Amino acid sequence: MFIDEAIIQVKAGDGGNGCHAYERQPFKPKGRPDGGDGGRGGHISVIASTQIHTLQDMAYRQQFKTTRGMHGKGSSKTGKNGEDIVIEVPVGTMICNDETGELIADCITPGVPILIAKGGRGGRGNKALASSKDRNPEKAEEGKPGEEKKLRLTLKVLADVGLVGRPNAGKSTFLSRISHARPKIADYPFTTTAPNLGIVQGENGRGSFVVADIPGLIEGSNTGKGLGIRFLRHIERTRVLAILVDGTSANPEEDAAMLLHELSLYSELLAQKPRCMILTKSDLFPADAPSLVPQGWLSMSAATGENVDGVVADLRKMVAQARETLP
Ligand SMILES: Nc1nc2c(ncn2[C@@H]2O[C@H](COP(=O)(O)OP(=O)(O)OP(=O)(O)O)[C@@H](O)[C@H]2O)c(=O)[nH]1
Ligand SMILES: [Mg+2]
C-alpha cells in the first residue's frame, strides 16, 4: 500500500545525572570532589533514502525512543551516552511538529542525517562544578530531559515533470514508453492509484529527468471526487507539468480547461507552473480529417511511439530552463 502520511511520536533519551562523590585518600576524611558527569541521552535523526518510496514503515512503528545517558560515577567516571538512532524516510518527506505546524526537516538530499529530537545533556558532576571560587561544591547537576515531540510526516515525491490528465488519457502508457517504470495500464479509469516515478535517461548521462505519473483528475477532484486531491500534492514540487489530453475525446480543449481549473482550485502555484499541452493517442486520429491539434499543443502516440521523442525533447528543454532558475 502507498502511504504518504504518518504521525509519529519521538522521545530522545534523557541525560544522565552528574555524580556527587569525593576522592578517598588514606588519613584524609574527605578528599577532593571527583564525581563524574552524566552521559548525554541518545539523539533521534532522520535520513532521506532513495531505497524506500512510502511511509508505510512509519505507520506501523509509531513510537521511536532512544536510551538515556548513564549517570556519572565516582573516580571521575563519565556516564555512557545513550544510543543514537537514525530513521530512514523516502526522499521528499517533510517533517512538521504536529502541534505547532513548524517545519522541522525537509528530507531532500539523500544520505544526510537531520537531527529531529535532541538527547538531553548529561548533568555535570561535582568535579566539573568545582572552581577556584567554590572548591567543594556540595551538589551535582541532574541530567536534562530528552526532547519529546509528536511529528507529522508528509511525503511529497520529488520529480521534474508531473503528468496531469483525466483517467485513461494515457499517462501511464507514456511513462512506461519513456522510462523503465512499469505502471499498470488498462482501459478503465483510475488504473493508477498511487504515484509512479520514472527516470528518463539523457544522452551521455546528461539531461536525465524524473517524471511522476499520478492518478487521473476529474471534474470536482478538488472536492474529493474520484481519487481526490490527495495526489496533487505529489506534483506540487515538480518543475514542469505535462498536461495529457485524450485525442479521442469529443472536446480536448474543454478537457484541458477542466484540468487547469482543478489545478488552480487546488493551488495557484500549480496552475502557474510551466506546462506542456499534449494530445495523446494520435494513432487513432482519422487520417483524412483536418488537424485536431490545438494551436501550441504537441501530439503523440505512446502506443506507436509517434512523436514521443519530440515530446520528451520539449520536456527536457523546459526542465533545463526551470532548473536554471531554481537548481
Ligand atoms: N491507441 C492508443 N491507445 C492508447 C495510447 N496511450 C494509451 N492508450 C490506451 O488507453 C488506455 C488508458 O491508458 P493508461 O496509460 O492506463 O491511462 P492513464 O492516463 O494512466 O489512466 P489512469 O491511470 O486511469 O488515470 C489503455 O487501454 C491504453 O492502452 C495511444 O497512444 N494510442
Ligand atoms: Mg495510469
Secondary-structure map:
Layout: E1 5-11, E2 44-49, H1 56-60, E3 63-65, E4 85-90, E5 93-97, E6 103-107, E7 114-117, H2 126-129, E8 148-155, E9 161-165, H3 171-178, E10 196-200, E11 209-213, E12 240-246, H4 252-266, H5 268-271, E13 275-280, E14 298-299, H6 308-325
Parallel strand pairs: 1-3, 2-4, 9-11, 9-12, 12-13, 13-14
Antiparallel strand pairs: 1-8, 2-7, 5-6, 5-8, 10-11
Guanosine-5'-triphosphate (GTP) binds next to helix 3.
Rg, rounded, reads 29 Å
CATH class of the largest domain: Alpha Beta
Q: Number of DSSP helices? A: 6
Separation of the first and last Cα atoms: 32 Å
Please report the total strand number as a whole number.
14
Report the order of strands and helices. Answer: EEHEEEEEHEEHEEEHHEEH
Relevant CATH superfamily of the largest domain: P-loop containing nucleotide triphosphate hydrolases
CATH topology of the largest domain: Rossmann fold
Low-confidence stretches: none
Bound molecules: guanosine-5'-triphosphate, magnesium ion
Instruction: Please list the strands of the largest sheet in the order they lie side by side.
Output: 10-11-9-12-13-14
Portion of residues within helices: 10-25%
How many domains?
2
How would you describe the overall organization of this protein?
The protein is an alpha/beta fold and 327 residues long. The chain has two domains: 5-155, GTP1/OBG domain (Spo0b-associated Gtp-binding Protein, Chain: A); 161-325, P-loop containing nucleotide triphosphate hydrolases (Rossmann fold, 3-Layer(aba) Sandwich). Helix content is 17%, strand content 23%. It has a six-stranded mixed beta sheet with strand order 10-11-9-12-13-14, sandwiched between helices. A five-stranded mixed beta sheet has the order 3-1-8-5-6. A hairpin with a 5-residue loop joins β5 and β6. The two termini are 32 Å apart. The mean pLDDT is 90. Bound molecules: guanosine-5'-triphosphate and magnesium ion. Magnesium ion binds at residues 171-172, 183, 191-192, 213.
